């Protein structure tokens, strides 16, 4: 890997392998955030709660990087990166569940408008 590419990748993850970042942050953290977002939407709670839960999940992801792979536990930079990825998955899970709810529970007035949207019938 070229030095310039290695330094750019160092901004995203600190371990020696991209696969560790993919496994821990995207698959484990993102999967947990997706489920948390769906759970918040499933109980008809507001979207800001996904934000709070994802802040906590960001700490958990940072701890897994630290405890299993020797990453830095207290690093604002990597915490923000991990939390940003986790929040993206959390809000996508929330939105997907909310769209499903609006189409299922209010089918007489709403119809699918795309994977993450609904629209009023008759428009």
Automatic annotation (TrEMBL):
Pfam families (UniProt xref): DUF6867
Organism field: Undibacter mobilis
Top-level taxon of origin: Bacteria
Residue ranges occupied by any DUF6867 domain in the UniProt entry: 17-121
Protein name in UniProt: DUF6867 domain-containing protein
Entry's transmembrane regions: 16-35, 47-64, 76-94
Annotated keywords: Membrane, Transmembrane, Transmembrane helix
